[in-house]
Specification:
Elements lengths: L3 H17 L3 H11 L1 H16 L5 H13 L6 H13 L4 H13 L3 H16 L13 H8 L8 H6 L1 H15 L6 H13 L6 H13 L4 H13 L3 H17 L4
Length: 254
Amino acid sequence: MLGLKGARCMSKRKTIQAQIEGPWDAALAQLREWDPVWAETCGKMSTNPWATGVLPRKFVELLSVGLNAACTNLNADGTRRHIRAALHAGATRDEILTVLKMASVMSIHSCSLGAPILLEEAKSVGAKPAAKSSVSTPACEKLRASGQWNTAWDPFLELDPVWTEEFMETGAAIYGTSLFTPKELELLSIAFDASYTHMYAPGTRRHIKAALKAGATMEEIMEVLKLCVVQGVQACNLGIAILADEMKAEGTRR
């Protein structure tokens, strides 16, 4: 028999699952019919970060908004579900909007990856970028002065200083917010970089290091990584309904 603590934990999981399932309801119900043991196990795993209490419920939902809305994911159902849950947990419009902005600018990693390769390959064939007139880059210089400049940005600053300055101004407007603590900003950044649709190792390491420096615990960072893994159930969310439809069309129960 379950002890009192175990019963409370199970009750909490059921409450959480009922609150966050949304479009997952039908898929999970079907999964329970086809494979009840795995469905139960998966349900426990996927609601674990909501049940542990390591991170506040509101922040778990904000992280989930970011993971679903990220430019590498763009899951509309999940984004709506977790925005609703974040609002219910007390998140403000501006907090959610900031997360959506962060989910947009993570696309800079296309340049972090590609610009160094472009410079290396151009050098190998003797190509050189067109001469550029002197450009003022105050946003970039401010980042350098504060110690926040990432040397991975040097290649695209060299290739296109005007656009790089525009991008850094865009990013500074987000990361300069007082809505989130430095620790929270780093935890959000870890989620974006470590997500299974991105897996950007340099950024993940950089933001884990910064999160620890900002006071994050190993347990808090692990919760963020667990939330990234939980996103994997989207495969069932998408595929089970399609499988059920196609089986019905084929007239098969197997």
